[in-house]
Design goal:
This protein has 139 residues and is of the alpha+beta class. The protein has one domain: Glutamine Phosphoribosylpyrophosphate, subunit 1, domain 1 (4-Layer Sandwich), CATH 3.60.20. Helix content is 28%, strand content 32%. The strands form two sheets. Strands 1-3-2 form a three-stranded antiparallel sheet, with helices on one face. Strand 2 and strand 3 form a beta hairpin.
């Protein structure tokens, strides 16, 4: 399974600390790694780290953290019924760039918020960043 890690707070994390975290996660996901950083208006920092174990979609387009419009998903797990959910989303006009369950989950979250998770069968842990909300908050 992949490895995920995140931080949300006032401190800036230096590159050495982030690299050390990714190094520890590499055994969980040796195929790729990713990092997303954001800073809110009030100076709060957000970091999402991902170590990828490629199983369903091996293409680099499915790498994580996965950004879909104004949302970013950092995900570990599997949505067993993602093909069924993908067909349902496609029938309502949703288009896809990958063959991954990650993108299906990202599309569900973007469309339905956290309620979208109730349609999923599987196991996972994730962090979902709603960029529009992030820029409005004052922590």
């Amino acid at each position: 399974m992949c490895g995920i890690a995140g931080y949300f707070g006032k401190c800036t994390l230096d590159t050495e600390r982030l690299d050390a975290c990714r190094g520890l996660m590499r055994r969980r996901g040796p195929d790729d790694e990713g990092l997303v950083t954001r800073k809110t208006r009030d100076g709060t920092h957000l970091y999402l780290l991902h170590a990828r174990l490629s199983i369903i979609d091996l293409d680099s387009r499915a790498r994580q953290p996965f950004t879909n419009g104004g949302d970013t998903l950092c995900y570990n797990g599997e949505v067993y019924n993602y093909l069924e959910l993908r067909r349902r989303l496609a029938a309502t006009g949703t288009t896809f760039q990958t063959e991954s369950d990650t993108e299906v989950l990202a599309q569900l979250l973007s469309r339905d918020g956290m309620q979208g998770v109730s349609a999923c069968e599987g196991m996972s842990a994730c962090a979902w960043l709603d960029e529009i909300y992030l820029w409005r908050i004052q922590v």
